[in-house]
Amino acid sequence: MNIVKGFACAAALIAGHAAAQHYPSKPVRVLVGFAAGGPTDVIARVLAQDLTRVLGQPLIIDNRTGANSRIATETVARATPDGHTLLFASLSHNVNYLLMEKKTYHPLRDFAPISLTAVLPLLLVTRPETPASSVRELIEMAKARPGAVTYGSAGNGGSAHLAGALLETLTGTKMTHVPFRGNAPALVDVMSGQVTFMFYPMIGIADHVAVKRLKVLAVGTAKRHPDYPSSPTMAESGFPGFEETAPWVGMLAPAGTPPAIVDRMSAEIRKSIAKPEVKERLAVLGAINVGSLPAEFVEYLKKDAERWARVIKAAGVKAQ
User: Fold this and answer.
1) pLDDT band for position 18 (50/70/90)?
2) Which of 123, 282, 298, 303 is buried deepest, with most CB atoms within 10 A?
3) What are the structural domains of the chain?
């Protein structure tokens, strides 16, 4: 029996390496669970453009919006595990699972993590005309008119929602959460004044600040960010620990994808984000490059789930 199993394992290993040598054999669909133009989508497109040149097959970004990326996640979980359907995920990968009463996927068992790509520190932004010029003044506004101050997000359970809910909890205020189908449309309503503020990943914000469409009340990094030297950190504003709310983005495949294909794609992603031109594009967007081995990404996802479970409990976030 052991000999039979040994031959079977060897055959599977050989077949996996053969598949990797011919991979990809057709266009690769990369599902993104958020609207085009949002942080996850933009980074996915930067990566896909470079990987298309390297792999010789187009990586096609497929925006499957809705349910805070759960639709895209469930689609990839059910996809054929041949490496030609991938998920470019964010922290909602774990958070959705934590919030769901009826579990429709498992963030680790149903996936083969490929590589953690980057993290995106959050900024607390509002329009320049908003009376508040600091986090403390924003909290005073919220206390003066319970429920009148609103904050946007890419959907229930997203990074912006969790950060806003946590701020409510820490300050004892009542604010109104306004979910959207992605960060980009939420930011549009912040700039127009339809929504008071939001916690937005640093990606692309500098351009809006430069033309005075937005102002930054605080940055969610441990230290002041060089792109926003005059903006205090959330810790300086009296709220330490907000750097833990920084969302991540990374690539995953369906469970059962041959390890050789997972390793190949992981290696190509790490090479891609290490290229000077890609690093520069992501840095301009405010992303902090990571790049990880599949096993490292698995461990990161485990710790990420533990971290968000604590935040969800502290903020009292519920599924909607």
Assistant:
1) low
2) 123
3) 2-119+247-315 (3.40.190.150), 122-245 (3.40.190.10)
